Amino acid sequence: MNRVSEEKSVRALLKSGIARLRExxxxxxxxxxxxxxxxxxxxxxxxxxxxxxxxxxxxxxxxFAALIRRRAAGEPTQHLTGKQEFWGLEFEVTRDVLIPRxxxxxxxxxxxxxxxxxxxxxxRPQKTxxxxxxxxxxxxxxxxxAIALAKELPAATFxxxxxxxxxxxxxxxxxxxxxxxxxxxxxxxxxxEGSGEWRVASGERKPPGGRISFDLIVSNPPYxxxxxxxxxxxxxxxxxxxxxxxxxxxxxxLYADLIAQAAKHLLPGGILVLELGHNSLPAVQPLLDASxxxxxxVTNDLAGIPRVLAAEKA
Length: 314
Ligand SMILES: C[S@@+](CC[C@H](N)C(=O)[O-])C[C@H]1O[C@@H](n2cnc3c(N)ncnc32)[C@H](O)[C@@H]1O
Fold this sequence. Notes:
- With 314 residues, the protein is an alpha/beta fold.
- The protein has helices spanning 3-6, 10-23, 29-41, 45-50, 58-72, 77-81, 105-121, 144-152, 165-177, 234-239, 242-245, 254-265, 281-284, and strands at residues 83-86, 89-92, 134-138, 157-162, 184-188, 214-219, 224-225, 246-248, 266-275, 293-300, 306-313.
- Mean pLDDT is 93; it is low at 1-5.
- The structure holds S-adenosylmethionine.
């Protein structure tokens, strides 16, 4: 019998799960074991720590042991629990989408700050509900950026694209889970390509030439270099989708096309907010040339890495 499932109290199971993950050199092994036990028992952390002597059924103990084995073998915790929190909201995650990362919350912060500044400049109250705003999220994955922004801007409408139909299926379920299915339209596309052909719902702004125009475009594109693949943790390299990770041999290859398309699709004064890879800034910032863009700004993440690049269309 497996060592983890031999002992049956909450405390004993948790202790043995932690020990097994530690032995396997799993990062944040205590948190991972806790999350897996919470998942199996459908309980919260307070319950676990206030019921250390509670006996766990043999079935639950075996399920926990199986998850610990899979985590020790490298599967991300979020693939085992099927969820990840982002911007205080819970998102379904599967092997088809990138697991939302905490640093991506800076994209939300910068987008909201930029919108607030624009409102102030226009002499309106800083806090906007997004009335009349059209927002595009390129490479939406789980839908986390579009959905978090849609919660913050309850009167704005959203288009979210992805090249992966499987990712869009997950994003659609996340929008439904957060009651946003009517405000976020998911489209399978390379970046924003083909927006002239997208079915135009009433009220959408479509200038002559047929393109849909946006007030805000956000994106966390794939930005890892294939040549860096060997430096990724095995949880990432072996379990997250390559299409979500790799932007090309160097990593930053997709930004040129992305910025060119954003320039075509943003209204004058429209805002672009991009997440950057750890070494993307020198290659990407020069793409925001002075003839097309103003108010270019860089925001560092908590580790001091330039993580978000933002600008306004001139
Ligand atoms: C780094 S993930 C970001 C996912 C999500 N926005 C997030 O922040 O967690 C990049 C996403 O872009 C999508 N993608 C890759 N190439 C694309 C392309 N050419 N056009 C549209 N989406 C693309 C991937 O499928 C993936 O879902």
